[in-house]
Amino acid sequence: MTFGTFLLIVTILYILLTASFIIGLKLNKDKTYPAQDLFVSVVIAARNEEKNLPDCLNSLLNQSYPKDKYEIIIANDCSTDNTEKICLEFMQNHPNIKLVNVKEDPVLLGKANALANGIDSANGEIILITDADCIVPPTWIEQTVIRYGENIGLVGGFALQKASTPFEGMQSLDWAFILGMAVASAGYKYPLGSIGNNLSFRKSAYQEIGGYRKLKFSVTEDYILVQAIIGKKKWDYVYPMDPKHLVESKPCTNFKSLLRQKQRWGKGGLDMKPIGFLFMLIGFLMHLTPFIMLYWGGFVGASTALMLKFIADYAFLYNILKKLDKTKELRWFYWFELYFIIYVILLPFLVFFGGKVKWKGREF
């Protein structure tokens, strides 16, 4: 087999894979049910979030859902800044906000420990999780609750990043791409994951798996939890792509923090289902092989392969962002493609040779 033939096969596989993702988006079912009288607990793990927490709390307080039907629990994860003080100030005027001060646990580590403590104190039948650096829409709780039919145990969600520069925009499209794959896989009834800043589940489903204390440690605690609940095969799940359910997150501010985020996600991805590794392998070869071809002088073959990849990526992102009313984010597409190529090639090295994961001043 010549290298040109190998590149052709990789390109065809990548296009077919992307086409299957687009079909998966269309197969993904999203159903709403009549309004239910469910009490909801929103849990936020907060570690040194004094800059972000006020905006997050204000968005959670400005909900269309009745205020007497939900509580907001801040799991203060050993913060050394004014996180606790900010919580106490909000609590003076908002009785539905609760503060849980979390202590270090020698067994249950990191964010999972904070979330576990927050969920322990939750009174809600439905647990919603977001991050302190997120802004949720006014309809977020309402749009989550109406998706809880009798057999629904988990509702995933979408999050994009606030973007006003190319550096921020490429990160937002990256999130759209990754979460789009998660939605597409759910469309095939083989969900590969979710994201922890827009996630909800029945507390009973959480308790049935023993909660975070019974799960193995992972730097991507949201993925492990989702797979455990779905793995029980008792509950159905939905993964809506709805602007009224879309969460906005803050992007990484520099390349160092972005690389650490990618390393953490990559390490967590080692727990992925086998088919996920196949997707990653095809993606890795699609990003690397054209440049090897260029080195050997195959300009036409390499440039054609890259152009077909760009078209496939654009089509996939367009189908995602159209559903979210966010097609304007495609203005960052060229920056995203440059970034996408670089980080996909570097990711295996970050995962296997990048050392320990660093997150919020901790190492894992």
Provide keyphrases for this structure.
14% strand; 364 residues; seven-stranded mixed sheet; alpha/beta; Spore Coat Polysaccharide Biosynthesis Protein SpsA, Chain A; three-stranded mixed sheet
Structure in words:
The chain has 364 residues and is of the alpha/beta class. 50% of the residues lie in helices and 14% in strands. The protein has twelve helices and twelve strands. The protein has helices at residues 3-27, 53-61, 83-93, 110-120, 140-145, 166-187, 203-208, 221-231, 255-268, 274-295, 299-323, 333-353, and strands spanning 40-46, 70-77, 97-102, 126-131, 134-135, 152-155, 159-161, 199-202, 236-238, 247-249, 358-359, 362-363. It has a seven-stranded mixed beta sheet, sandwiched between helices. Helix 1 packs across helix 10. It is globular, with a radius of gyration of 21 Å. The model has no long low-confidence stretch (mean pLDDT 92).
**Which sequence of strands runs across the widest sheet?**
3-2-1-4-8-6-9
Proportion of strand residues? 5-15%
Major sheet characteristics:
7 strands, mixed
The total of helices stands at 12
Q: Number of domains in the coordinates?
A: 2
Structural class: alpha/beta
Mean pLDDT: 92
**Cα separation of the termini:** 43 Å
Q: Which ranges are low-confidence, i.e. pLDDT below 50, for 5 or more consecutive residues?
A: none
Structural Rg: 21 Å
Q: And the CATH topology of the largest domain?
A: Spore Coat Polysaccharide Biosynthesis Protein SpsA, Chain A
Name given to the CATH homologous superfamily of the largest domain: Spore Coat Polysaccharide Biosynthesis Protein SpsA, Chain A
The residue fraction in helices comes out at 40-55%
The CATH class label of the largest domain is Alpha Beta
Following the backbone from N to C, one meets helices and strands in this order, namely HEHEHEHEEHEEHEHHEEHHHHEE
